[in-house]
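Morning!

This is the sequence you dropped in the shared folder:
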Amino acid sequence: MESVRIVSAGVAHPPYRVPQAEAARQIGLFAGDPRRVAAIARGTKIASRAVTLAPDQLVKLGGIEERNRIYQNTAPGLALEAAARALGESSREQVGCLVTSSCTGYSVPGWNVQLVEQLGLRCDTARLPITESGCAGGVVALAHAAHYLRAHPGASALAVAAELCSLSFHAGGGEGNITSTLIFGDGAGACLLQAGEGPGARVLDSMTMLIPGTRDALGFDLTGHGFYPVLKRELVTLLPPAVEAAAAQLLTRNRLSPADVRAWLLHPGGARILSGIEARLGLKRESTRWSWDSMREHGNTSSAAIFDVIRRYLEWAPEPGPAVIAAFGPGVSVELLLVDGAW
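The structure's back. Tokens below.
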């Protein structure tokens, strides 16, 4: 089987950075419970996040048309910036596949068309847009890009995600909306994958696992005011055993155990989720630090977040050894990649 490697990653974020303490202060005023909001904010372990609009503009957002127009005007530029950084000096001619992920806005045609044109990719580049995988979309995109390359020796592929989570803020919303507003940020990420031997993180296997009976635990409701986040408390207890079970299945079929894994590149979905997974799998912070560092600096940027975690891991240039990339999205679904460093 053709070897496939993740060779580079790039990220991009909008210009406005909001310290978490300031975000909590403003959200607390709208929620009418400043103390509770401040307590939730402290528990996120997030220092600041990037957002598309200044906070005083975000709170004035109107209906779905205005929000989606901002998405259409902003997301493609962030995606382009992240993709260009992932590509670097690599040949555009070799890119045969572009897989894109986004769940915080909508456009037809999708911004993948703009990427093909603005990056100078071939007009016969295969394009696959992923719109309903939520925070897991980045890993889903990577898995599909790897599948393409195994059937196309000598080619390369791009996986790109762009999310404007701040556009789902609704003043005076319920607890799920308040929590998501304190956790999510805006940004884009991309990875370049290549077929054949060489440096990078070699993709060994992938898998997906649905958690039965959890359709209502995570997602978006589409209303006249835009996307409204659904984020149930149960996620904190649902995800750790599900990740453990999925990882065990993935590792077992590759004749590995959790003790063999050198790094766990987890989607930075929230401090309690990361801590819960660490506790369930018996992980040391040393093996998950890239996720914590990303969350502290950028919060949870939905499907784009995993690319920042991978970027940090690749820049660390670790010794060869197995690593698990994991993300979680609506379904509730756990999406995994097993990789092995080859530096």
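Headline: The two ends are 20 Å apart (CA to CA).

More detail when I'm at my desk.
O.
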